[in-house]
Amino acid sequence: MAEKKIRVLVAKVGLDGHDRGAKVLARFLRDAGFEVIYTGLHRTPQEVAMAAVEEDVDVVGISLHSGAHLALVPKVIRYIKEYGADPEEMLILVGGIIPEDDIPKLKELGVDEVFIPGTPISEIIDYIRENVRRKREARRMKVKE
Amino acid sequence: MNYDEEEVIEIVEGIFSGNKRALARAITYVENDYPEGKEIMRRIHSKTGKAHVIGLTGFPGVGKSTIVSKLTQEFRMREKKVGIIAVDPGSPFTGGALLGDRLRMDGFDVNRNLWVDPGVFFRSMSSRGRAGGLAAKTGDVVRLMDAFGFDVILVETVGAGQSEVDIVEVADTSVVILMPEVGDDIQINKAGILEIGDIYVVNKADLEGADKTARWLKAMLMMDEGSVEILSQTTHADEARVQSGEIFEGLKKGWVPPVIKTIADKGKGIKELADAIEDHHKFMIESGMLEDRRKRRIKRELFELVMEEVKKMIKTEMNYKEIIQRILKGELDPHTAAEEIVRRLVRA
């Protein structure tokens, strides 16, 4: 069976016009061989969640520079569930200006990893490759049970 | 090949009961050649054939995605459910793709939010390095959406150059989109995508040169033996009527592709475009052309599938590597070898 291509949603959510980082990341993920869907600016959590479901992505990368991450990210996760998908099957990543104290809070809310400014892109790519594989294997095990 | 029966049942039932998650997963299976994908396609087939499949093609940047968004709004207003497949190029070098059509869809800032509308489903696909303007599995994804119950399925091609005409193999109605200043009347008369339109759109019609482009298109569409006959009888005094196409009016029988000017981001001309699309659909049904087109499509697809199976059989069951070696050494020629393989296949 052919290895399934890794699909990544790069999302900008809420009132936040800073998308340089998201666009650069989208471009480098493309060059890493991923299929990248970019949402554009100012999406609502519902819109991001529905896009994640319809596009059946492996990774949801949410970029935030507005400080509203603790309010918006859990909503994205909640709506993914509401729209019939299992957010546990996806890698939920957050990037942007995130205070260090908030990182454990986000992880508790269901975020797999947080990447702050200065993270080498290769680190993000490696993280995605490794963990998408892990999630897929976990899923296959779940199916077998 | 083995597939997961429970998974297939769950997905097929999901598709028939309008579960978007099931449709999304089915597309993934089909796109990646999972055995589940093939089985799902088998089981949904009897529920297909109802949707009107509309292809939209044109050069990069002419406004295909914006037109898709506005057309979706218009069809939703007409109480039709809309499935969208948007194909963007996948890199033949890295396999990666930046799928950037979805972001043109209207969101919360307009009346109807297409992103979360239950009557809309949007899927981005990578062409995965394939030429022709579509992804290899576009046809199957159309069928999945058809079985799901969409009335209208919009298929947006890769930004096409001149010869990417695969869309006609998938669409009942092909819309070719241009904009002002994409070239002169020679460009417009070149073979390829400008031959395939059932409807032509000149988008960004607020830019200078839109009338000229529309006029050239109309003249191109009117060109046939009858019009040449008329042309031979015209003088300089008729030039304006020739250029506007007026002189040829009433000459053509059957479907004459209309040329529609739009300013998509302002929503202008979209109603006219949707009307033309519906007129074309009606014409195709009444004239029997819809069935003809679909028959041709099925024939081509069937042959392709048979060829795929044959190739697989040759690879798994025949000792073709030895044959290649013999051809290489000059002991055997390719024509004789091919005939021999076919003979052996038929016997098997």
Order of helices and strands of chain A: EHEHEHEHEH
Number of strands of chain B: 8
N-C termini distance of chain B: 20 Å
Strands in their spatial order, largest beta sheet of chain A: 2-1-3-4-5
CATH superfamily of chain A: Cobalamin-binding domain
Largest interface: A-B, 33 and 37 residues
Molecular structure report:
- The complex is a heterodimer of chains A (145) and B (348).
- Chain A is an alpha/beta fold and 145 residues long.
- Chain A contains 5 helices and 5 strands; from the N terminus they run βαβαβαβαβα.
- Chain A has helices spanning 20-31, 45-54, 69-82, 102-108, 121-144, and strands spanning 7-12, 35-38, 59-64, 91-96, 113-115.
- In chain A, strands 2-1-3-4-5 form a 5-stranded parallel sheet, sandwiched between helices.
- Chain A is globular and about 35 Å long.
- The model of chain A has no long low-confidence stretch (mean pLDDT 92).
- Chain B has 348 residues and is of the alpha/beta class.
- In chain B, 46% of the residues lie in helices and 12% in strands.
- Chain B is built from 13 helices and 8 strands.
- Chain B has a 7-stranded parallel sheet with strand order 4-2-5-1-6-7-8, sandwiched between helices.
- In chain B, helix 6 (185-188) links the parallel strand 6 and strand 7 (199-202).
- Chain B is globular.
- Chain B starts with a helix and ends with a helix.
- The relative contact order of chain B is 0.11.
- The model of chain B has no long low-confidence stretch (mean pLDDT 90).
- Chains A and B meet through helix 1, strand 2 and helix 2 of A and helix 2, strand 3 and strand 4 of B.
- Strand 2 of chain A pairs parallel with strand 3 (97-99) of chain B, so a sheet runs across the interface.
Secondary-structure topology with pairs:
The complex is a heterodimer of chains A (145) and B (348).
Chain A: E1 7-12, H1 20-31, E2 35-38, H2 45-54, E3 59-64, H3 69-82, E4 91-96, H4 102-108, E5 113-115, H5 121-144
Parallel strand pairs in A: 1-2, 1-3, 3-4, 4-5
Helix pairs in contact in A: 2-3
Chain B: H1 5-16, H2 20-31, H3 35-44, E1 52-58, H4 64-77, E2 82-88, E3 97-99, E4 120-126, H5 138-148, E5 152-156, E6 173-178, H6 185-188, E7 199-202, H7 210-222, H8 225-231, H9 239-243, E8 259-261, H10 270-287, H11 289-317, H12 320-329, H13 334-347
Parallel strand pairs in B: 1-5, 1-6, 2-4, 2-5, 6-7, 7-8
